Amino acid sequence: MEGLDEMKDSESIGGRFVQKEYISDEAQKLLDSIKIETKERKKAAKEAAKKPVNA
Questions:
Q1: How far apart are CA 54 and CA 50, in angstroms?
Q2: How far apart are CA 37 and CA 30, in angstroms?
Q3: Sign (positive/negative) of CA torsion 29, 33, 34, 39?
Q4: For 25-50, what is each residue's pLDDT tens digit?
Q5: Residue 1 gets which letter from DSSP?
Q6: Global pTM exceeds 0.90
Q7: Residues 6+ apart with CB under 8 A from 16
Q8: Residues 6+ away with beta carbon under 8 Å from 31
């Protein structure tokens, strides 16, 4: 049981098995541009939904 308790404690935040993510500058720029593009699309769709349809 001591070994099991030690494993549980070491897997907590800041423990032995912490997952880390490394993103290059180029990849971060791409992710940021995708996020901005997505926001712009949502904004455009929202504005289009507000306009009345003339049929």
A1: 12
A2: 11
A3: positive
A4: 999 999 999 999 999 999 999 998 88
A5: -
A6: no
A7: 10
A8: 23
The Cα–Cα gap between 4 and 46 comes to 52
The Cα–Cα gap between 39 and 43 comes to 6
Listed by start position, the domains of the chain span 22-48
Q: CA torsion sign, 38 to 39 to 42 to 44?
A: negative
What confidence tens digit (pLDDT) does each residue in 6-28 have?
877 777 666 666 677 899 999 99
User: Which residues are CB-contacts of 23 (< 8 A; sequence separation ≥ 6)?
Assistant: 31
Amino acid symbol at 17: F
Query: Which has more pLDDT, 41 or 51?
Result: 41
